[in-house]
From TrEMBL:
PROSITE patterns: GUANYLATE_KINASE_1, GUANYLATE_KINASE_2. It comes from Heracleum sosnowskyi. GO terms for molecular function: ATP binding; GMP kinase activity. CDD domains: GMPK. This is guanylate kinase. Keywords: ATP-binding, Kinase, Nucleotide-binding, Transferase. SUPFAM superfamilies: P-loop containing nucleoside triphosphate hydrolases. Coiled coil: none annotated. It holds the Pfam family Guanylate_kin. It comes from the Eukaryota. The lineage of its organism: Eukaryota, Viridiplantae, Streptophyta, Embryophyta, Tracheophyta. Residues 99-280 form the Guanylate kinase-like domain. Its EC number is 2.7.4.8.
């Protein structure tokens, strides 16, 4: 006690200014370690408490923290808990990430469908919104899986009922995104993938702003894109020309997107991995995108 008084009066005087160094004024600082890895404020208040409790609490009532190398884990855990005075919480430090809407766009033939198909195979809790379209079914396509194939009249009825988040007339056919499907899957905690053309992406940006993630897919070059489109064998020479001319304009809009992914020839897996990384990074953001449809 006498020693402490002498030490305190030294601290108050300016005779030995080095004694005001945090090493001497911060509890435990002389150890050069923080034995419980506590925040300095907690440490300070704890130590002040235990110093002041010296006056009132007998040694037998003070919680004893066993030595780390001797105590078993549970004993140490409980001792630390009772020293701090409140039970350790098992609540997650951060809540679950909000479901995301990922909008994938890019010129015709770049590989949007191929990337999304693979993404669905490798990633859980991801729902690809099945778009409604008035175009004819292509060989191999399945109604309700690739698209909801509807007549023009049926499509226009959906528009009248405000059932579509966004719709457009593309190469003479209507395409639109059903709202209810998005609400249902987001309620289950799924991320939503939307596949749209450039007009659709513009409209969605107006509607959703920054609450969705916009990804633009490009080929490594124009010539690679044309070869891919030819290789798909779905187009006539006329529609090929229209799609290629349109693609030339579309790639100029890349700046409006949040991310660009180069889907290079033979590198589909890498493109999918990159899209996955984008989703993971978005989910780790402190300020989450929150979307209401
Ligand atoms: N990285 C890649 N390397 C080689 N071929 C690819 C790659 N990605 C996609 N493809 C192929 O390119 C063709 C066009 O791809 P896909 O149909 O997915 O394009 P899209 O962007 O969905 O086109 P559209 O908008 O016209 O429907 C397909 O035959 C597909 O298998």
């Amino acid at each position: 006690m006498l020693c402490r008084r002498i030490f305190t009066s030294f601290l108050r005087s300016n005779t030995y200014p080095f004694l005001k160094h945090p090493k001497f004024t911060t509890p435990f600082a002389f150890l050069d370690v923080n034995p419980l890895n506590l925040r300095p404020s907690v440490l300070t208040s704890l130590t002040h408490k235990s110093i002041s409790s010296n006056c009132t609490m007998s040694d037998s009532r003070r919680p004893v923290i066993p030595d780390v190398d001797k105590a078993d884990k549970i004993e140490l855990f409980r001792a630390l808990e009772s020293s701090l005075g409140t039970p350790f919480s098992s609540q997650p430090f951060v809540p679950n990430a909000s479901p995301l809407i990922i909008v994938i766009c890019g010129p015709s033939g770049v590989g949007k469908d191929a990337v999304i198909k693979r993404l669905r195979e490798v990633r859980q809790n991801l729902h690809f919104v099945v778009t409604a379209t008035s175009r004819d079914m292509r060989p191999g396509e399945i109604n309700g899986k690739d698209y909801f194939f509807v007549s023009k009249d049926e499509f226009l009825t959906m528009v009248e009922r405000n059932e579509l988040l966004e719709y457009a007339l593309v190469y003479g056919d209507y395409k639109g995104i059903p709202k209810q499907q998005i609400r249902d899957y987001m309620a289950e905690g799924c991320d939503i993938v939307l596949r749209v053309d450039i007009q659709g992406a513009d409209t969605l940006r107006r509607i959703l702003g920054n609450s969705a993630v916009f990804v633009f897919l490009v080929a490594e070059s124009e010539s690679a894109l044309v070869q891919r489109l030819i290789g798909r064998k779905t187009e006539t020479k006329e529609t090929l020309l229209v799609r290629i001319a349109t693609a030339r304009e579309e790639v100029k809009h890349v700046k409006r997107f949040d991310y660009v992914v180069v889907n290079a020839e033979g590198e589909l897996e890498n493109s999918v991995k990159l899209v996955e990384s984008i989703i993971d990074a978005e989910k780790a953001k402190v300020q989450q995108r929150r979307v209401i449809i």
